[in-house]
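Fold description:
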Amino acid sequence: MELRQIQYFIEVAKLEHVTEASYVLHVSQSAVSRQIFKLESELGVNLFIHEGRKVKLTPIGRLFLSHMEQLMKVIDNAQQEINEFLDPERGTVRIGFPSSLAAQMIPKVVSAFRERYPAVHFQLQHGSYKELVESVIQGDMNLAIMGPVPQHEPQIKSEVLFQEKFVAMMPANHRLAEKSAIRLSELKGDYFVLFPEGFILREIVVDACSNLGFKPKVAFEGDDLDAIKGLVGAGMGLTILPEIALNEHLASTIITLPVIEPVVTRDVGVIIPANRELPPTEKLFYEFLKNQTDRFGFDSSLNQK
C-alpha cells in the first residue's frame, strides 16, 4: 500500500467522482483509476460502487476511509513536528475559537505573538463550544481558546487565562437605561434575545436567572452575535453577553450596563489535549498565552459604559 494510493482514494471518496478527483490531484483520470484498482486488488475488497460516472463507498470502503483519514492526520502531524523541530519559530499554529472571542481577543493574541515570532503561520478555525472541545479530543487541532474552559473532561487539559464579566446589552430607550448598573433580578419581566439551546453562552445566562428563581422570557434566538446585537438595537429585547464579545463601537440604539447581584462571569482560557504532546510551535504559543495574558488588556473594565 502506497501513500499515493491512499491520497487518491481519500480524494475520490470525498468527491465521489474519479474525474473530478483527478482534476484536484493534477493527474490523469486513468492514473487515479489505476491506483484505486491496485489498492482494491491488494486489499482484496471493493472500496467503491460505480453508479454511472459517480462512485459511492461500499460499507467496508467507509470503514477504510475512516482509518485512512486518521492515518493522514498522523502523517501530517509528523511532518509538521519535523519541520518545527528544525525551526519552531517558523512553524504553524492551528487554533480554534468561538464567535464571542473573534472580535477582540483572537486578533490581539495573534498580533502580540507575531510581534515576537513574525515567521509563524496561523490557521484559525471558528467553532461552537462543543465543536472545539471535540476537535481537540479528536486531533483535528491541538489548541482552542474558549470560555468557560471544561473542568471535568479527562481528555482535555485546561488553563484559565482570566475571568470575564457579563454585561447587559439593551435598547437605548429601555426603562433601566439611565442606571449605572442593574441587578439581574430587575430583568425578570423583560424579553431576552439569546443563543439557541445547546450554546454555552445561553446556558450561563439561563443558569444565572434560574439561581434567582426565574426563567428568562426568550423572544428571539440566534447563533450569530451581530444578528443578536441587531435585534437588541431594533428594540426586540435585551441580552446578556461577555464583555469581550462586544465591539468597541456599538450602534447609538444600544447601551451596555454592568450586571450586579449577582455578577455573572466566565473563565476564559486555552485547552490542549491531555494525552499527546504539542508540536514545538504550538507549545511555544501555548506558553506565550499562559505568560503574557496581562498585556492583552482583558480586564473587568473592558467595554463598560
User: Anything to note?
Assistant: The longest strand covers residues 156-171. The mean pLDDT is 89. The CA atoms of residues 89 and 118 lie 8 Å apart. The radius of gyration is 24 Å.
